[in-house]
Amino acid sequence: METISEPLPVTRETESFATLLSRWARVFGDEAAVTHLDHRTTADGRADTLTWRELDERVSAVAARLTAVAEPGERAAVLAGQSAEYVVAFLGAIRAGFVAVPLFPPGLPGHAGRLAAALADCAPRVVLTIAAEFDAVRDFTAAPAVIAVDALPAAEPREWPAPDPDAPAYLQYTSGSTRSPAGVVLTHRNVLANARQACTAYGAESRTTSTVSWLPLFHDMGLILGIGAPMAAGLASVLMDPVAFLEQPARWLRALSASPGAISAAPNFAYGYCASRVTEAEKAYLELSRVVSLINGSEPVLPATIAKFQDAFGACGLRPEVHRSSYGLAEATVLVSVTDAGKPPRQVTFDRDRLAAGFAEPAASGTTLVSCGRPAGQRVRITDPVTGEAAAPGEVGEIRVSGPNVGRGYWGQPSAATFNLPPLDPDTGEGWLATGDLGVVFDGELFVTGRLKDLVVVDGRNHYPQDIEQTVEEHPGVRPHSAAAFAIDGDAGETAVVVLERAKDTDVGIAAVTAAVRAAVSAGHGLRLHDVVFLEPGEVPRTSSGKISRARCRESYLDGSLTARRLA
After folding, report:
1. pTM of this prediction?
2. Hey, what domains does the chain have and what are their CATH numbers?
3. Does residue 159 have a pLDDT over 90?
């Protein structure tokens, strides 16, 4: 199979996010750099803004304090909520030559175990937080030093040493949706390459575009969108808390309306959530004609969701071509591929049975996939997951990626089976990253079909869980974006289970919906469900970014904690 690739960006040897901040502070001075819309005290959100000069000075204060308590090269974890102070803390660690570890405060509901695991893995020498969360963070962590970045005095001006481009810039911990958190080691070269790839791909330009994001800053896309791309291209950044979005999704769209030339991103579920929750009265205040790019990624992009969102907000000026379907992962910093600018993402319907057998063949009916476009400055190939040999044209296989944005491995863990796999590039010496994702290249574009670990294999036949989930969620008694399909081991091999939430305000009986779901999955997929577990709204396990976690659903099903809450 022919490898698809794009030209690679050039990164200067001594640059980092922090050195670029100094440059923009000199150029833009008192222009707004980062604004956090705080909805905790006001419905419309109080705007807390730092100019480029203020941000640069605050970052230097953090860097000065860090170098007074520890040595460059140590890990500095950030445990704080979404805020401008988070940006200050993260960039302060970068400027001081520390390895930043973007995490979250102990109070994030349901994720204390993941936080403890990440801290135990990276063993930070210093933890950065804010004064309001200082006591809770100090009590939670065993780090020798805890610093509240919003309580630091200004530092004397000084020159900071140029970074080694191949030194770790930060550890990006995976979401934990498929395994225990692992810290991807990302160098300055990696993250600057990917931030610039993103800026080029999404049409970012200084002073004419800005980023708007409610994605958590400790997630790969949230960090690059909210901090990395703004530092790479001199973009203003507008941040919101994820909870503020979930409470009232119209807040995100109002922020887009107020930010000329906005670029933003969200998982697929968020677009459907907006279309369902934003009222006609709220739409009257939206002006979305100036949005530059709306990135849809991090989970399967569904054609119905794109159509629903466009139908809901087309009258507000939203143009179909701003939808940009993307594929990426933390091991590649974040971005790998994206659909072309200026036209809606391509959709292709493939024969469902042939796709389950590992071959992508267009058909009049079957499974419709949305393209994830072309590489954004790296190379992509499809391979046999076991041998690593190139797949035949039209054959589904594991997606492998090579480029300057691919990380160096997992912190303190074996990485040889995932990173820098052969064949090595003779010019750069770079190998290939095994993503664990399945896909196919069709007419020069990448189509992602699922994850290797998520495949439901029953009676020797492959089933993609997202296909099953989509069928299940077509029933009006099932809450949208709530289903998780997974396999468990049975006496006769693997069997399939679906966990889902009942729709709000439904008067349909659970038994009737269960029977209908079983029948729909049997008719559409030739699959008999071993079990269907109905839960109340909000009870299906999710990751910290709001995505359904199939792995946690499976674990909770097997240990009985899900079935104990089953609705009758």
Report:
1. 0.87
2. 14-204+214-251 (3.40.50.12780), 455-565 (3.30.300.30)
3. yes
